[in-house]
Amino acid sequence: MKIEVRSSYEEVSRRASRFVASEIVSNPHPVLGLPTGNTPKLLYELLVKYHDEGLISFSEVETFNLDEYYPISGDDPRSFRHYMDKRLLDRVNIQEQNVHIFDGEAPRDELDEHCNNYEELIRDAGGIDLMVLGIGKNGHIGFNEPGVGFGSTSRLVQLKESTRNRNFDEPAKAPDTALTMGIKTIMNSSRILLIASGEEKAEAVKHSIRGEVRDDYPASVLQLHPDVTFTLDRKAAGKLDLNQSGGQKVEII
Fold first, then answer.
1. What is the pLDDT of residues 24-73, one digit of tens each?
2. Is 215 a catalytic residue?
3. Which of 65, 98, 138, 188 is catalytic?
4. In this predicted model, what pLDDT tens digit does every residue of 32-45 receive, in sequence order?
5. Does 89 score more than 90 pLDDT?
6. Order of strands, sheet of 191-196, starting from the edge strand that comes earlier in the sequence
7. Of the residues 46, 91, 144, 169, which has the maximum number of CB atoms within 10 A of its CB?
């Protein structure tokens, strides 16, 4: 594990954008796992900027999104499909057949098949080369809430009320379920980059890096991955004792 501490959210995003851009440039067919939420917004803006400047091309990039609310239309501004189209996919030269996002309108009685097909698509792509993650206040990654089994794969999950309250202006009208990659799916990625910003993430970051590996802090399982980087701003790293590296490589800028 490598821990990178940057001075601000902007610097975290710049570092993350260079990390992703390097994968795109160096890999003939890069397969990316992508998150949504507030944290990666500037990351996507910077990737679009690099694309517009001719520094990177998405023509051979294949993407798999971590999760999607269910049920929800891809045209709904609250959906992750809409989020990705608006912030990245409609703004770069990616091929539509290389974009994979859970279908928030799939028939409920076909969800097991839909999720199994998602896993098969990842395998057919050769696996995810670089998985980018955010982290929830309770340590969730994707929509893998506390208590999830580490052997889980893509599936329908029940969202905790705290997650719905954070993500929606009107939680009572929000979907109470979602489709998500599982912990096993995430851990099968060749490399993982987790980005976090803000004091509210500090406790989750501390448990994920220094705490016991246990399913009530899902992100703690990342300690078992052979190639994971945490890129944090100073506030998100605020509860880490960086003088105690625990055998981890620590870089502070």
1. 999 999 999 999 999 999 999 999 999 999 999 999 999 999 999 999 99
2. no
3. 138
4. 999 999 999 999 99
5. yes
6. 99-100, 62-65, 31-34, 130-133, 191-196, 228-233, 2-6, 249-252
7. 144
Among residues of the chain, what percentage have pLDDT more than 70?
Answer: 95
Told to judge if 138 belongs to the known catalytic residues of this protein, a careful annotator would answer: yes
Q: Which domain holds residue 49?
A: 2-252
Selected catalytic residue, list 4, 62, 67, 103: 67
State how many domains the chain has: 1
What b/e sequence results for 214-231 when a residue is b if at least 16 CB atoms lie within 10 Å of its CB, and e otherwise? Answer: ebebbbbbbbebeebbbb
Tokens of 129: 């080369």
Residue 67 falls in the annotated catalytic set:
yes
Q: Which domain CATH number covers 246?
A: 3.40.50.1360
Residues 6+ positions from 102 with CB-CB distance below 8 Å: 65, 67, 68, 70, 114, 115, 118, 154, 179, 180
Give the pLDDT of residue 190: 98
pLDDT in tens, 154-185: 999 998 887 777 666 666 677 899 999 999 99
User: Which position among 103, 145, 188, 207 bears the catalytic label?
Assistant: 145
Q: Return the H-helix or E-strand segment holding 41.
A: helix 41-52
User: Under DSSP, is residue 26 helix (H, G, I), strand (E, B) or coil?
Assistant: helix
Q: Is 199 a catalytic residue?
A: no
